[in-house]
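Allow me, if you will, to draw on your knowledge of protein folds for a short while. I have a record of one protein: its chain in single-letter code and its fold written as discrete structure tokens. I should value your view on which stretches of the chain appear to form regular backbone elements. Thank you for your consideration; the sequence and its tokens are set out here:
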Amino acid sequence: MKKQKPIFEVEKLRVERDAVILHEVNWRVERGQHWVILGANGSGKTSLLRALTGYLMPSSGEIRIGAARFGAADWREVRRSVGLVSSSLGHQIEPEQTARDVILSGREAQINFWGRVPLAAEKHAARVLRQVRAGHLAERPWRYLSQGERQRVLIGRALMARLRMLFLDEPAAGLDPVAREDFLKFLSLLAKSRHAPTLVLVTHHVEEIAPLFTHVLLLRGGKTLAAGLREEILTSTHLSTTFGAPVAVRRTGARYRLEVGRHAGSFRGAAEDS
């Protein structure tokens, strides 16, 4: 069988500043896959995310999306294909901006929106608001949106650009357990929608890995530890190495959780089979 052409590929990516931040990251994403980037604090997740979205220049290696190679292509054009949802963006939005304004700002990859747009863009923004279940929030100012509502609106902002990939940087941070589950259900519906982008969740919480995510990339010390199908990567052995401590992976239905403690290693094999 002919190997499928990747929509996104990272090869021997290295980032150096005062010290080496990323040693060597290799990663390949194909159409129909949705990924999780998982690692402990300090593993390189944020640096990798910034490099992949054009905010941190690599020291060596390559990042390719479709036919475009980062460094050779215009970064502004690349960002029209690769979106980012991060709390750092939310902090830069003016409190009086409405949900509709935030959605419209994504059209030109702006942070805040002022002025007028063509009628076609207005209609597109209204469709996106409905898509992210925020149609009723169109005129509500940013300051009055809940954390979960803000995350959905930020995703809508990214979708205005008709993305190929959407990176979600710790999107459930600050959500209570009920709001988190509601948000994960929303992501599952988004992944099934027509023309949905490839979703990439960046997290250090195994509990956030919903069934929609098919593949996992594990990072440790700025390197790719393992990458592949979710069922093959989310093992107690892999995650004990990832987090640098004995942990046991427990699975209930299609969801996962970690048990951490001095006895975790003793039932590692059983946890992987449960």
